Predict the structure.
Amino acid sequence: MNLSINDRIKGSLMGVAIGDALGFSTEFLSKEDAIKLYPEGISSYNEIIIDSFRTQEQIGKWTDDTDMMIAILDSLISKKTIDLHDIANNFITWKNSQPFDIGNLTRTVLMHSNYLNNPIETAKKVWEEEGKQSAGNGGIMRTTISALWNYTNWNEIKQNTENLCKLTHYDPRCVGSCVIIAYLIHNILLNQPFTKSDIIKLGAEYHSDIEKYIELGCQPNLSTLQLDDGATMGYTLKTMAVGLWFYNFAPNYFEGIQSIILEGGDADTNCAVAGGILGAKFGYESIPLHLTEDLKDSEMLLAKIDKLLEVINIKE
């Protein structure tokens, strides 16, 4: 596709927010319940069925996935560089605003008394104290933006992605999964081909478990991912596999997001990650206009995206 870099970056960031807000419709539901509630899928936020978790106030809003991405975006606009301490401070400000949702590991790390003094070391300490088993998807959900800054320079993207993940999620599975998503988006932006072997080789730098989930993301049956499995629905490698699957098999942005929604599980995060990839692949103009117009605070986010485009000197 002959898309401009502007359209791809704008599509990627809005793709995260819109996917997040739509995916909220089936977050934590089983696939069976998701299909029962939305037999025809869901095409607008006002079709989201309210329950004890999905309140009227939250309908049409993004969740913590996009909030944390915006915390990084705001820092990039302000500092015009990757400033990890400024981003960490934005995370704290967001946490103190009493957000609607926040992951358990993220909360634990951000509440640590030493966090602002040394955020990465604090995240490492919390990971170690929890037996080095915490590999949730709280890092990967916000990683799209790390592929957009210095988008032509893979070495910088890789280093930045690692550090941004480690601000809360130190586990090498988390770091590796974030790097792979950034790698996908980097290559999409530059129209560069890559192979499954390239991704496997990259994942092997971080953890041996990553290859299995790369394979899952490259096979054609979405149900094989078992996105509503209670034991693994928030696992970073499963969310990575979702991103890969939709890069490989989604025909367009909207149909891709619809497919994830009907799988249930951690649907808002899965849709956010896939949305960032699909938005970059198919562009902003591929996203149905009403999903942007009806998204709460969309004008604010679009204005921030325009500022980011100015900062990195991308011209129409």
Summary: DSSP finds 15 helices and no strands in the chain. The mean pLDDT is 96. Residues 5-23 form the longest helix (19 residues). The CA atoms of residues 180 and 202 lie 7 Å apart.
